[in-house]
């Protein structure tokens, strides 16, 4: 059954039919709770346009996008300014894809979009674990009077998953109480870099794992095109190696990549970085296919 209209503008070569594809790309242009500089709603179209200049082949994976069945269904139509409505639509589309036994590769949008997918993933995978790369803790109970915010998204995911199921890396900004709360055993929070990632991969390699990458985990000298840049981030090479290391995960069930605001980088280098990260994540999701 045809569930989605064919998308005319797709990421690189990801133009296979929905029914034949095992990985489904979609973008969620939600930009409702950004607390500093808005603009993430424009990420999906910018990435698709810039991907024209990127090779299909990844020398890191020694694999090629065009050798896999990936369908890009485009931007979701979200009700502008309606936070719960946005999350409901993201959840609705995620459920369709999961019910068809496919994997999602979501492009943000602000980081709150992750909650929309996790609400459905935890139903399909009750033992779900999350690996989270970010500059920010995102563990507040509320922010600026809102319980649903890009600054609360991992706390809301925690409410669905519970202790010892969320593993955070690259964190270098947040309220003191967020760090205290995490260190009480609620999440695994590794500050500043990705140094202990392989230990965690080994620990949870047979669990269902969802990977969420806030691109501001990268240093702003590499990735200035984001709403809340934080100095002291990781390099692209460190992120690339981390993605390769996650080949050891036996059950990576979905990914997202969020918080590109393309217009803050007039050179479009940030968008090109996002394109390359997306290529590697799509190949990672396909990695264990025969």
Overview of this protein structure:
It is a single chain. With 290 residues, this protein is an alpha/beta fold. It has a single domain, classed as Arginase, Chain A (3-Layer(aba) Sandwich), CATH 3.40.800.10. Helices cover 32% and strands 17% of the residues. It is built from eight helices and ten strands. Strand 7 (166-171), helix 5 and strand 8 (188-191) form a beta-alpha-beta unit. Helix 1 packs across helix 8, helix 2 (83-99) runs parallel beside helix 3 (113-124) and helix 3 (113-124) packs parallel to helix 4. The two termini are 25 Å apart. The mean pLDDT is 95.
Relevant terms:
8 helices; 32% helix; single chain; alpha/beta; 290 residues; Arginase, Chain A
Major pleated sheet:
8 strands, parallel
Give the count of structural domains.
1
Task: Round the Cα radius of gyration to an integer and report it.
Answer: 17 Å
The average pLDDT score comes to 95
Order of helices and strands: EHEEEHEHEHEHEHEHEH
Find the CATH topology: Arginase, Chain A
Task: Summarize this structure briefly.
The protein is 32% helix and 17% strand. It has 290 residues and is of the alpha/beta class.
């Amino acid at each position: 059954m045809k569930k989605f209209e064919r998308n005319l503008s797709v990421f690189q070569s990801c133009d296979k039919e929905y029914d034949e594809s095992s990985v489904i790309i979609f973008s969620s242009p939600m930009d409702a709770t950004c607390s500093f500089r808005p603009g993430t709603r424009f990420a999906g179209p910018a990435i698709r346009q810039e991907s024209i200049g990127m090779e299909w082949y990844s020398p890191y994976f020694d694999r090629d996008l065009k050798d896999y069945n990936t369908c890009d269904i485009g931007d979701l139509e979200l009700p502008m300014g309606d936070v719960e409505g946005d999350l409901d639509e993201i959840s609705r589309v995620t459920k369709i894809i999961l019910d068809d036994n496919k994997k999602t590769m979501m492009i943000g949008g602000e980081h709150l979009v992750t909650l929309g997918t996790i609400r459905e993933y935890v139903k399909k995978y009750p033992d779900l674990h999350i690996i989270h790369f970010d500059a920010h803790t995102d563990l507040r109970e509320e922010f600026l009077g809102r319980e649903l915010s890009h600054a609360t998204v991992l706390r809301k995911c925690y409410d669905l998953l519970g202790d010892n199921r969320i593993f955070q890396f690259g964190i270098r900004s947040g309220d003191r109480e967020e760090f205290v709360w995490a260190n009480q055993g609620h999440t695994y929070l590794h500050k500043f870099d990705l140094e202990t990632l392989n230990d965690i991969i080994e620990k949870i390699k047979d669990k269902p794992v969802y990977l969420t990458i806030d691109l501001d985990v990268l240093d702003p000298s590499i990735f200035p095109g984001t709403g809340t840049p934080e100095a002291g981030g990781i390099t692209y090479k460190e992120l690339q190696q981390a993605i390769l290391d996650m080949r050891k995960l036996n059950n990576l069930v979905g990914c997202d990549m969020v918080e590109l605001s393309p217009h803050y980088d007039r050179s479009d280098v940030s968008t090109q970085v996002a394109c390359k990260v997306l290529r590697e994540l799509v190949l990672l999701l396909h990695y264990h296919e025969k």
